[in-house]
Design goal:
Rossmann fold, seven-stranded parallel sheet, 49% helix, 255 residues, alpha/beta, globular, single chain
Length: 255
Amino acid sequence: MLIRFDDRTVIVTGAAHGFGRTIALNFATLGANVVACDVVKNGLEETARLATEQGTPLRICALDVSDAPSVHNLVAETHKASGRIDILVNNAGGVMGQTGRPLEEVSAAEWKAIFAANLDGTFYCSQAVAPAMKAKHYGRIVNISSGAGLGISLTGIQAYASAKAGQIGLTRQLAHELGPWDITVNCIAPGFVRSNPTTEKQWQSYGPEGQNRLIENIALKRLGSPQDIANGVLFLASERAGWITGQTLAIDGGR
């Protein structure tokens, strides 16, 4: 199945490492005009270096997705430069350096920080690209949730599980709102993947017994990779998925 994105303009958030970097590099390889965004500037520079190295340069932009004015400015600049925005991948988020603790020990600020990065950012970015996509009567929005949004957080972080479940609900809602303009909105719920410093630290914390137990609970008996997640994004963003919307695809090796 040949998939290409020639002449498409793609915005990928959280592109400084892990899933976002892999997704951005894949889109660039397949012909897209990619804008890779993140708050981690040095990671973005590495993403840009890798893109140049593979012969498919992309644009990088420092962006805090929880800052609505900054999001709208970035989208406006991108639209002015290219005349179109075809695809948005809402990948930014994470646990914001937090660890699982009892409910009564979680502060309001900690709760809000995770929602801001994961759910608020998804809303702001989708809101910002909607006018350009409506004008072209075409668009693809792919949200990166988590297995925690379908079940529970392996780390026990209440806000993370809740925000990721919120992304899934937002996906369904926006699919119905934007569908009349031929804009599809879908979601991917990755299983555990060693994709960045946070997940690597989490993996090491399990120890050999916990690692074996996690793998034994996966049907395929192995961990996935960032490329496995990117493959799902590429499909949902492609013409092959033109009649798929409002869906959440679990890419987790089978649970």
